[in-house]
Design brief:
The chain has helices at 84-93, 100-115, 121-131, 138-151, 157-176, 184-197, 209-217, 231-242, 249-260; strands at residues 9-13, 28-35, 41-49, 54-58, 67-69. With 262 residues, the chain is an alpha+beta fold. It is built from nine helices and five strands. Strands 3-2-5 form a three-stranded antiparallel sheet. It has a two-stranded antiparallel sheet with strand order 1-4.
């Protein structure tokens, strides 16, 4: 959409997800939400998009909306893109949204920007890193980490190894050892992602694989706070060890035998 907080018109532009598709514009029933500075919905507009590339919607500018979200009730079968103003707003205040479905639509819109090449994976992860420690919903917490893992597939390998995955690893580890009252589901997820995001850097000599080994061996003081890796975690760590070039094959075999006999 084209959103100007000082105008009383919201311009919604529609296009096909498939390039050069004839007659791509269709009628879609959607609800548009307008948010105040606290990420609270101050106005809702139910409407049917015209079968033209552009639909103009009137709203109450006196309510001073700070952001807008299309299809916020997820009624229409369409991909939503955020305007630049709303994107900046939600990047800072998405965790303030109370409705879980609405929050999920926002995160899906952010990830779609990554998938469409309109937002870098690194920028997406930075938004996620700010949101994750303050996210109260286990379902949204799971979605954010899942999107982060998928976002690495849209980033160069060297950037993943040296920047993106180390950032995610450090945050997951920090949350795990923070002694917060974490749900059992969240702990299970965080352990899995800790292993998933562990990597070794090509330029900055980052070595989080060794931290996993220390967790497996029970020799890292910080990681002792976390309950030991379960059997699935152990096999995932063994897999990570076998991909790690700085460990001799004889030692890799030892860890394989150690977990196999546990």
């Amino acid at each position: 959409p084209s959103f100007d907080p000082n105008s009383d018109e919201l311009i919604i532009q529609q296009e096909s997800a498939v390039q050069n598709l004839h007659c791509c514009c269709r009628h879609h029933k959607i609800t548009v939400a307008f948010f105040n500075d606290n990420a609270e919905i101050i106005e809702e507009k139910e409407l049917v998009l015209s079968d033209e590339p552009k639909t103009v919607v009137k709203y109450d500018v006196n309510k001073q909306p700070k952001a807008v979200l299309l299809n916020f009730k997820h009624e229409g079968f369409l991909k939503v893109r955020m305007d630049s103003i709303s994107q900046s707003f939600f990047a800072k205040k998405v965790t303030l949204i109370k409705d879980e479905l609405t929050k999920g639509v926002v995160w899906k819109a952010f990830f779609d920007l990554v998938r469409d090449g309109l937002l870098s994976a690194c920028s997406f992860v930075d938004i996620a890193l700010e949101a994750l420690p303050n996210e109260s919903s286990d379902a949204i917490f799971y979605s954010i980490l899942t999107y982060c893992a998928r976002a690495t597939g849209y980033s160069p390998k060297i950037l993943n190894k040296n920047i993106i995955k180390p950032k995610l690893f450090n945050l997951v580890l920090e949350i795990l050892i923070s002694n917060q009252n974490l749900s059992s589901d969240r702990i299970i997820l965080l352990k899995e992602k800790l292993i998933r995001f562990a990597t070794y850097g090509e330029e900055k000599k980052i070595d989080n694989i060794s931290k996993l080994i220390a967790w497996l061996d029970g020799t890292d003081e910080k990681l002792k706070i976390i309950t030991g890796p379960d059997l699935k975690n152990k096999w995932d760590i063994v897999l990570a060890i076998h991909k790690f070039p700085n460990i001799p094959n004889s030692q890799k075999l030892e860890y394989f035998k150690k977990v196999a006999s546990s």
